[in-house]
Amino acid sequence: MLNPYFAFGVPIFLLFLYVVFAIIRKKSKLHYIGFVLLLIATFMMAFSFQVLQGLWTLEDTQASKQLSNLKYSPELLWIPLILGGVLAIVNLWRGVKRVQSFREDSD
To answer: Which terms are listed as keywords in the entry (predicted)?
Structure first.
C-alpha cells in the first residue's frame, strides 16, 4: 500500500481523470458531470486517507525497518488527501449553488 507507484500513482491518475472531466464539463451542457467530479475528488480523498492509515499502522507496530525502506517522505502522503478535500469542497459548493439556482428558477 505504501509503494510509491501505488500511493502516488492512483491519486495522479485520479487528478488526470478529474482534469479530463472538468474540461468536458466546461465544453458541454451535461448537468451530471459536476457530480462525477465530486465522486472523483471524494474517492481521491478516501484513497489517500486509507494510504495514510496504512502508514500510521506501520508506525504503531514499530515496523521501523519497513518505514526506513520508504523511498519518499511520509509527509508527502498528505498532499493528495488535502487536494482531494479541497476539490470535494469546491464541487460540493458548486452543487449547492446549482440546487439553489434550480429552486430560484422554479419559483
So the answer is: Membrane, Transmembrane, Transmembrane helix
